[in-house]
Design goal:
alpha/beta; Arc Repressor Mutant, subunit A; DNA polymerase, domain 1; 5-stranded mixed beta sheet; 5-stranded mixed β-barrel; 32 helices; 15 strands; about 50% helix; globular
């Protein structure tokens, strides 16, 4: 297989673009680096195309390795024909490859192999090729006491086993039947007897059936989870007998088995039936269940990736002194104050809620801390006691307007994971675990990306069945998302944590630690070139990382931008042309927009790079994340019991799935907006309308207190009412109306007669 050509066709790009990208990847270049700084080489492939290319490259190289193993195995058996070799070389997926290998795959002695050893293969072949032969008479010729073939029945059973294996191992037949079953089978589930109460959460699947090819990933994964927890019995079936009949027909057609009332026809029909029931159906059921799981996992990983990217790229509040509040009742509210750079400057605990109810004292403590450290923002975790703590913050702001505070409720997902992590222990060795969560809550308001990279992605809580999918593939995909986000924003090398630096293109955790250690020993980096003094920060690392590392207020103004040091000569050419200084040129959009990028291109730096440089000079180090905004929760709504049908509330999207979006409206339980209720128009994919972090207006449709479920809608009342409006009844046509009905002259007589006949039938 030509991997380059295959990927080029799939991505609808030129082969030279793919070949160039593969060469760069093989040389150790990262996707962010290639997408940003090697546009001329790849013809402008973007990061999404490059990630898809990278995934397919891994798959196709694995496929080729498996192909080589299979070819070698068959060749060693001296069974590799030119035709078979060509088929194996042309196989474009693993299923097809394994189908071709099946007859030659080493396996334990089967009934068919034992029958062949007993000399029954000629009997099987003769009955298949000449159905006019009488099976019983032919079988008598093959009795063999030495191999326990003592009667006609034993001989015919052995011949049957040989043909069944032959039929079941046919690659073409397997491929066609697999596709037919995929298109027509139903996946069904039943609850195990006596498991109804234990598996109540799977109630929707106690007697469930859906077309295999149409079941969405979240339902498929729910079925597999129910099966794994031994609540559900999941299987495949056909909903009509004609589907099984079609499968039998395909087997018979493939091997020329036809019922023409010949002597061996009934026996051969039985072989076909047994092949389907004993060999093929069970095998295909297992394979298609695996295929369904893999597809569902891929979709779940895709959903998780999109949500994670939205969360990481959420708008930062910026460099402001922030107080983090980690709410709690009995254990109190943990308080942490961090300065504008995220450094912890104070921490304590307050007990405003039950059982101690030190409300006024808590407000006094918070006011004192805010005044002492000039706090600007209050970040409140959205867990237990969140709304009560939010109310405390509101009263603090009302009583102390001079402090000019702003409070925001943030997701605390993963904060506890960070608190107990080795990274947190290293960062705050003397700080109790309970206070580390408050620090994380404060910092994630200042810069969500910088803080959330410290937490294992799947612990952040924006996934869908993340613990049920392939963990290796999930980790690789999510790591790629984190890498893309970190490099899209850029990193201040003089303030970034080792955790954040480790995701920069070309860096790893070891080099990131070395950067922090060097910074602590020698002070802030004055320019990018100084990075080469860091241990293990070689030329290749510098090439990959330098453009994404920012040095603000350094000796070289360009070091604060995304312009790569290798392209500084281009900027010098521009400055020479304008007879200007860099400090004068940076940010001067009026001058920069008048320049022609073509004028500054050369053999090394083409039009894409020069265009990017001019844009960067206009807005150096620009942050691609959106402007900071917050949702305002309704003050008199704190619990599920406070919700009333019809209420219109503001909330923030916390998770987006295939079937809709979950929205935090401030009652400790996210509500679901089903995708049918996301807009007045039809929505195929919820991500067309919403993303994690988006602030939305929702209306309460239903509140299920026992199951703690909230149904919400984003549709307008007008559209909702229109959908509920009664449709006109399809009343039968009266005899009087029939007599008065006239076919228009413009309608042909044939059509008119047909129309009249149809009306009479009604």
């Amino acid at each position: 297989m030509d991997i380059v050509q295959t990927i080029a066709q799939e991505l609808a790009v030129q082969t030279k673009q793919v070949a160039a990208a593969i060469q760069l990847l093989d040389e150790g270049a990262t996707v962010p680096f290639i997408a940003r700084y090697r546009k001329e080489v790849t013809g402008g492939l973007d990061d999404t195309q490059l990630r898809n290319l990278e995934e397919r490259l891994i798959y196709l190289r694995d496929l080729n390795e498996r192909r080589d193993v299979i070819l070698k195995s068959i060749a060693e058996q001296e069974k590799l024909t030119p035709e078979l070799e060509q088929q194996i070389l042309a196989a474009d997926n693993k299923a097809r490859l394994e189908d071709l290998y099946l007859p030659y795959k080493p396996k334990r002695r089967t009934k068919a192999q034992i029958a062949k050893e007993a000399g029954l293969e000629p009997l099987a072949v003769s009955l298949l090729e000449n159905p006019d032969l009488n099976p019983n008479q032919e079988a008598e010729k093959y009795l063999n006491a030495e191999h326990n073939i003592n009667d006609v029945a034993a001989a015919l059973d052995g011949a049957k086993q040989i043909l069944m294996e032959k039929f079941a191992e046919d690659a073409e037949l397997n491929g066609k039947l697999r596709e037919y079953v995929w298109q027509n089978a139903q996946i069904t589930s039943q609850v195990h007897t006596g498991k109804e109460q234990e598996g109540a959460k799977f109630k929707d699947y106690f007697a469930f059936s859906e077309l295999l090819k149409k079941i969405p990933s979240h339902r498929a994964l729910a079925l597999f989870r129910g099966q794994r927890e031994e609540i559900l019995r999941v299987s495949l079936s056909f909903d009509a007998p004609e589907h099984e009949a079609e499968c039998l027909r395909q087997i018979a057609e493939r091997f020329g088995v036809h019922n023409k009332q010949r002597a061996a026809d009934n026996w051969l029909q039985e072989v076909v039936s047994w092949t389907w029931k004993i060999k093929l159906w069970l095998k295909l059921e297992v394979e298609l269940m695996v295929q369904l799981r893999q597809q569902a996992e891929l979709e779940a990983i895709k959903v998780f990736s999109i949500n994670l990217k939205d969360l990481l790229m959420a708008s930062p509040a910026g460099s402001k002194v922030t107080m983090g509040l980690d709410p709690g009742f009995r254990t109190g509210v943990k308080v942490a104050v961090v300065d504008a750079t995220g450094k912890l400057v104070a921490y304590t605990a307050i007990f405003p809620h039950e059982p101690r109810n030190d409300w006024d004292k808590s407000i006094h403590q918070l006011a004192k801390l805010c005044q002492e450290h000039k706090v600007q923002l209050i970040s409140i975790g959205n867990g237990t006691a969140s709304r009560e703590t939010d109310k405390l913050a509101i009263e603090l702001i009302q009583k102390h307007p001079e402090l000019k505070l702003t409070k925001i409720v943030v997701s605390e997902a993963g904060a506890s994971v960070y608190s107990a992590s080795e990274l947190a222990a290293k960062e705050f060795p003397e700080l109790d675990v309970s206070y580390r969560g408050a620090v994380s809550i404060a910092r994630r308001l200042q810069d969500p990306l910088a803080e959330l990279v410290k937490i294992e992605p799947k612990a952040i809580g924006v996934g869908q069945y993340q613990h049920d999918v392939n963990q290796v593939q999930l980790a690789r995909t999510l790591d790629n998302i984190v890498e893309d986000c970190v490099n899209a924003v850029g990193v201040d090398v003089n303030t970034a944590s080792a955790a954040l630096l480790s995701h920069v293109s070309g860096l790893n955790s070891s080099i990131a630690e070395n950067i922090v250690m060097y910074r602590n020993q020698h002070g802030a980096f004055s320019d990018r070139q100084t990075l080469k003094a860091v241990p293990r920060f070689g030329e290749k690392t510098f090439e990959q990382a330098a453009g994404f590392l920012r040095i603000v207020n350094g000796t070289q103004a360009l070091d604060a931008s995304a312009v790569h040091p290798e392209a500084y000569p281009v900027v010098e050419k521009i400055l020479k042309k304008l007879e200007s200084e860099i400090t004068t040129l940076i940010g001067n959009g009026e001058v920069l927009r008048k320049l022609s990028p073509k004028e500054f291109t050369d053999e090394k730096f083409g039009l894409p790079t020069v265009t990017d440089i001019l844009k960067e000079l206009e807005k150096p180090g620009r942050d691609p994340r959106p402007e900071f905004k917050t949702a305002v929760f309704q003050e008199d709504v704190h619990e599920l019991s406070d919700l009333k049908v019809g209420m219109v509330l503001e909330g923030v999207v916390t998770n987006v799935t295939e079937f809709g979006a979950f929205v935090d409206i401030g009652v400790h339980q996210d509500g679901l907006v089903h995708k049918s209720a996301l807009a007045d128009r039809y929505v195929k994919d919820p991500r067309e309308v919403v993303h994690v972090g988006k602030i939305v207006k929702v209306r309460v449709l239903e509140v299920d207190l026992p199951r703690k479920r909230i149904s919400l809608t984003m549709r307008s009342e007008e559209a909702a009412n229109k959908a509920k409006a009664p449709q006109p009844e399809n009343k039968p046509i009266t005899k009087k109306a029939m007599n008065n009905f006239k076919v228009p002259p413009s309608v042909s007589s044939g059509f008119g007669d047909a129309l009249m006949d149809a009306l009479k039938k009604r």
